Structure formats: C-alpha cells, structure tokens
Amino acid sequence: MGTTQLEPVPEPKYWHLKTVLSEALDSEFAVGEILPNERDLAARFGVARATLRQALEQLELEGRLQRRRGVGTTVAPPRVGVAVGTERHAWPGTAGDAWQPVDCVTAVPPAAVAAALEIPADEPVHTVRRTRTSHGQQVAAELLYIPATSVPDLSGIDTPSGAARARAVLRELQHLPLEDQDRAVELGSARADDARELDRLPGAPVLVVTTRFVASGRTAALSTATYRADTCRLTFGASGGVEIHEGPERRAS
User: Fold this and answer.
1) Structural domain includes residue 252
2) Rounded Cα–Cα distance for residues 67 and 106 (Å)
3) Strand, coil or helix: what is 90?
4) Are residues 213 and 117 in the same domain?
5) Rounded to whole angstroms, how far apart are CA atoms 19 and 177?
C-alpha cells in the first residue's frame, strides 16, 4: 500500500485527515468492512498515530465509523430515518411501522408524562417498549405510554406478558379514531438505561423524538423515542418540517 502525502493546509491536521479518510471510506470501503490497523493507516497517510486517532474519533462521532469490541473499527451503515412533521397520521403498530415490540408493563409513568396525558400523577398506564434496528444494529428505543382509558377493552382480552401483550395493546389502541399527532425533536444525553440498550456510553449524544397522539380531543398516547445521534441525519425541508432521512448520502445538509 503506497503512501499518500497530505497537502499543507491552515486547518488542524487531524481535521484535514478526517476529510481525506471520509473520501476513502466512500470510494474504497463497504459497509461493515474492517479498516486496516492504526499503524498501517498512519503510515499510509504519513501522520502520527495520535493525529490518526483524533480523525477516527471525529468520524465515529459523525456516524461514519463504529468501534466494536473484538472486531475493530468498521464502516458504519447508512443512517436510519424517521419522518418528523409529515402530514401522515398513523397509530404505532400499523402497516409500515419499522418498530418491533419488546414488552409491555403497567406502571406509574414519570410525572412529566402523566401531566402530558392529563391523568393523576399516581395512575398506572400501559408502557409499551419497542426497538428499531438498521442493518442488524439497534439504533433506537421507544417507550409508548397509553392510559387505560385509551384501551378500555384490553382487560377482557387474554394478553400474556412480553411482546404479545405489547401487540395486543397496540391493536386495541388502533380502534380509536386518530385525529392528530404532533412531534418534537431535541438533542439530549443518553441515560444509563438508554446507553445500555443502544450500546453507547452514558452521556453519549442522542436524538429524542416525542410524539403526542390525539383522539377524541385528548392525548390518547405519548411516545418518547431515543435515537443514537451517530445514526441520524436531520434535514430541514422547504415546508419547515424536520426529517431524518435514511440513505447512503452522508454529506452535510
């Protein structure tokens, strides 16, 4: 493998190297492919290993690379997408939903959730946990809070625990006429539970999408979905809506 010399530039050397490496990822490597070791990469680009590590760390933060224990540094898959601010209204669990139900428990929700659902602070709700994967990797986790009043016939149904109960709750929820839904997006830091589920360190950047579902003039369900920030790309369309697109394109919007 030959040596590629970097041109003198005013920007930090690791930052210029990051750009060169990014171009190499596009032209020379496939998704999931393992990169050469640091010694070989540093020799190829004629830089110190410390400079190379800075560039690799930046590419990892941007979602271009993934470091996996026992495997090495691999090329990350395309970023997963979820539409935010679209005109399409649909209950969770309907056709085309990319989420997979994991389980469902009945418990008192956080105070902020109870307030949003306009229920007493000590009133238990059905809490459905779902996950979303891309290229075999979990990229998002969701908690969907559903008051008992939104699924009044659930008590008469034989609903075992786990994913089966989650699906039963979602089926009952779809009996309501969905009038509206709105979403909010914010950047946050992974809590311990989120970090463990998404294979990130606590405090890692995440994207939190909160969705409120309205039926019969009230909030019938509330969803909080936490995405790995390194798997999402936000673009702002002409309509003013916010979307996270899925695809191989990785240039900055």
Assistant:
1) no
2) 37
3) coil
4) yes
5) 50
Alpha-helix residue ranges (DSSP H) falling in the chain: 13-28, 38-45, 49-61, 111-117, 163-173, 192-198
pLDDT in tens, the chain (253 residues): 456 666 655 678 888 898 889 888 888 888 888 999 999 999 999 999 999 999 998 888 777 888 777 778 888 877 666 555 555 678 999 887 889 999 999 999 999 999 999 999 999 999 999 998 877 778 889 999 999 999 988 776 666 778 999 999 999 999 999 999 888 888 888 888 888 888 877 887 888 889 999 998 999 999 999 988 877 765 554 444 445 554 444 333 3
CA distances from 190 to 19, 187, 221 (A): 28, 10, 23
Domain boundary pick from 58, 75, 92: 75
Residue with tokens 């969701």: 142
CATH number at residue 23: 1.10.10.10
In the block, tokens 């075999």 appear at: 136
Closest by CA position to 166, among listed 99, 95, 84, 120: 99
- 221: which residues sit within 8 A by CB, 6+ positions away? 91, 92, 144, 145, 146, 147, 150, 173, 212, 213
Helix (H, G, I), strand (E, B), or coil: what is residue 11? coil
What's the domain count of the chain? 2
